[in-house]
Amino acid sequence: MYAQGLIGSSQDTEETPEFLAAFQARIDADEKIEPKDPMPAAYRKTLIRQIGQHAHSEIVGMLPEGNWITRAPTLRRKAALLAKVQDEGGHGLYLYSAAETLGISRDQMTEELLSGKAKYSSIFNYPTLTWADIGAIGWLVDGAAIMNQVPLCRCSYGPYARAMIRVCKEESFHQRQGYEIMLTLSRGSDEQKEMAQDALNRWWWPSLMMFGPSDGDSQHSDQSTRWKIKRFTNDALRQKFVDATVPQGEKLGLTFPDPDLKWNDDKGGYDFGEIDWDEFWRVVKGQGRMNVDRIAARRKAWEDGAWVREAAMAHVEKRKTQMAAE
Ligand code: FAQ
Questions:
Q1: Nearest CA to ligand 1 atom 28
Q2: What is the pTM of this model?
Q3: Contact in structure between 121 and 210 (CB atoms under 8 Å)
Q4: 92 Cα distance to chain centroid
Q5: How far is the CA of 53 from the centre of ligand 1 (A)?
Q6: Does ligand 1 come within 6 angstroms of the Cβ of 151?
Q7: Ligand 1 contact via 11 beta carbon (within 6 Å)
Q8: Which domains, from first to last, does the chain contain?
Q9: 114 in helix, strand or coil?
Q10: Separation of CA 63 and ligand 1 centre (Å)
Q11: Which tens digits make up the pLDDT trace of 257-314?
């Protein structure tokens, strides 16, 4: 299943009860697991799945905002958006590299994305209709990404944890630039404020869906938490996000599209309405408004880039021949 010759592609150690107990003891002691360490096949598989999907999300996530680079309202906005979209591309690359340390190749991950076998975040299957969507994505989507990713800096797998440190620093700048766009619009003309409100109305629920199914329906949470890949459950992170974000929205003078959203003194957090899980699963299964376009764009990019990969490989072969002759 895994590419030959890559780090971590060696046979996993026989999974005796003693081996599994010793592995769990390392995790419980907060030791980092590194690429050449023996690890259970299921731990490797779950990391390849999560890191691969995370990488795909960063790369597909460049598309909705990339759509606005040529239409940014000022040079300053354009420069910031260009930098942000490039950062997301960089995050995808660190993450593909982290997944490669587990013995899967970038080509295999790409094939899995294009064939629909590997998922990417549901959020990127919604269209960016106005400039305010760029504000809402930075504020809400990067905000949700940070809430989810800060705990991943303490993930048990070393290369993933280390990649997350830089990613989170950059996401923090993205969140602020998004919030600043929302602040400018919500203090602007009536039309601008309306645009900001409309963007919040459309992006709020999909942002809550980014945290994944509720705890009762999450297939992987229990095992991933035991392995300290995940440090909090999907619902716990979603609640933290709501609690952090609602006061920010109030400061903007905007309202959230949820009549059930209200502060609950007893729990020390906000109550909020039920997520439309049918919509979530429809989008995850490929029936969102932009799923077909997103995969078509990635397929085109992969095909258009074939000559670059071929040229790079030809260069490697040439260097190998030269070095053998030296
Ligand atoms: N969309 O059992 P669980 C970003 C799938 S990066 C699509 O709870 P798990 C930066 C899940 O894969 C955003 N599928 O799964 C940016 C699983 O299916 P599988 C991405 C989803 O892994 C900002 C099934 O449902 N972030 O935004 C979603 O324990 C702005 C059952 O779910 C990450 O990937 C979903 N929302 O928990 C870029 C962070 N939720 O694999 C550009 C790392 C769940 O069995 C612009 N990942 N599924 O076929 C994670 O923390 C976890 O993987 C979760 C899901 C929390 C996403």
A1: 212
A2: 0.94
A3: yes
A4: 9
A5: 7
A6: no
A7: no
A8: 19-325 (1.20.1260.10)
A9: helix
A10: 18
A11: 999 999 999 999 999 999 999 999 999 999 999 999 999 999 999 999 999 999 999 9
